[in-house]
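Tutorial handout. Part one gives the primary structure; part two gives the three-dimensional structure as tokens.
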Amino acid sequence: MMLRRTAFAFGLSNRGGCRLLSSTASLLHRGPLEQKLKDGPSLQDFIAGTARNRAADPKHEEGEAVVSVPRAPSVGSSYFVETYGCQMNISDTEIVSSIMQGAGYQPAPTAEEAKVVFLNTCAIRDNAEQKVWNRLYEIKHTNKKLPAQDRRVVGVLGCMAERLKDKLLESEQLVQLVAGPDAYRDLPTLLHAVQGGEQAINVQLSVDETYADVAPVRPSANSISAFVSIMRGCNNMCSYCIVPFTRGRERSRPASSIVDEIKVLRDQGFKEVTLLGQNVNSYHDGTDEGTSSYQLAKGFRDMYKLRSGGGVRFADLLDRVADVDPEMRIRFISPHPKDFTDDVLHVIKERPNICNSLHIPAQSGSTTVLERMRRGYTREAYLELIDRIRNLLPGAGLSTDFISGFCGETEEEHQDTISLMNQVIYDQAFMFAYSLREKTHAHRTMTDDVLPEVKSRRLQEVMSTFHTNLASKLAGDVGQLHLVLVDKTSRKSADELSGRSDTNRKCVLPNVPVRNGLGLDGETVQMKPGDYVLVRVDSFASQTYRCTPVARTTIQEWSSASIQGRRAGVESDIKSILGSVAAPLFDSHSTQSLRTSNVA
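Part two.
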């Protein structure tokens, strides 16, 4: 079947909804499609366009949301989403599932059994995009073997859709539908166009879409941990990063909607929530009555100047979220170092259920490279932040990102990164060779002049440094006590359970009966997913602890016990707190056991 192409233009409401303005003519009447969609609308275009739409539409003055009406599924009644990339994409897949099911589509167990297959994509590096291209060719190959009426409709969603736009539609009929991360509400409408024999695309970015009113459809297999998106987009404009061009400007959900969603998760039995955002700790709900003003961490700069005004900031939100349930763990990803203000760190210290696991992306240890990256801080400012965290949150697990071979990186600058890693000693690191992305500041103004073999060698040195330091750190952790949230039976053995510590370290422990509580008179119980279990680290392999379970407990009980133990400062007092349950655990490692990870 010959496919025609339809490009949709959408006006934006003040509640994040979309209104279908026109098909084809509005975008195509001035010239060929290739010319109109070559680079897509710029950030300035969609901001200006939104302002014009609001001024021209009186309904916006009345506060009325104008939304596209979902159409009954006519392409096929089943869909499947393959998710690539970050946690935000996992969360977005849950949004897509909610919208699709609300329009009458049913989830299929596999891509092969679905009539509509979506690939929710990542564009942060070239390697991530190549995986998607390979998968598209694979689907096309299998589609060719099917009768015409049984062939699957293929759609590309997310950041890669936003970045490549029409290139996806023009690539050997691999794709019939392209939708950017702010266009998911209109997937039923786009699918209706595909059913009519057209290719459909909507990659319009939004200044206010947060999907706050869409209840995510989460996988039924996991009722322990959940992602909750609190903000979208990024205003940082780091010179290497494509995210502001694929995700748009920062906008935050109302704090009340986030708290309400977490209350629902609490009532459903979830034990851990991870707050998500491209720049999660720059969260700002200006519609709330909060009065917190914008601050930067000491020694950091901000390129974006329009962050002022009162409202709920990230520290306020953390406090509200933690208050929903003291027995529900709270994590967050992905932050920027500039937004780790002292008030954020103090909330983490004061709330035992906010995990002491912080992602502090450095990207480089060289001040000159950081300047070219437009990160807004120096090596010295970053290390001062690390010192403040260590002082306020001793024992906190720190993770980071590093890019090897950024534009113009010299050997001396590379060695600055190695020395930073040796000074900080990270618990986890995400390390990559630099991948030039079109539209970024680096693409426009710099030269990707570090040879591939040099990038590869430097990356290997960075990875080797991390793993050497980690092995030493993990060896020092043997004998420590950690509070672990059990999340599943181990994949390798039904006789073992696995979970994660407060510091986000994977822990494996035998599935045996344990004492219920830290007192002397606790009964013996069988552990299960969703339990908090106090464990002692016995050994480690790779990045995983192997542990002995001590007792099933709670966040509050262990917080109280560990605070008392720190105050006591001697082995006998720790034994009196934990009773005979933990007495056999105290040997030559007893002094290390005092260094609990959960409470500063």
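Part three, for discussion. The longest strand covers residues 532-541. The first helix runs from residue 25 to 28.
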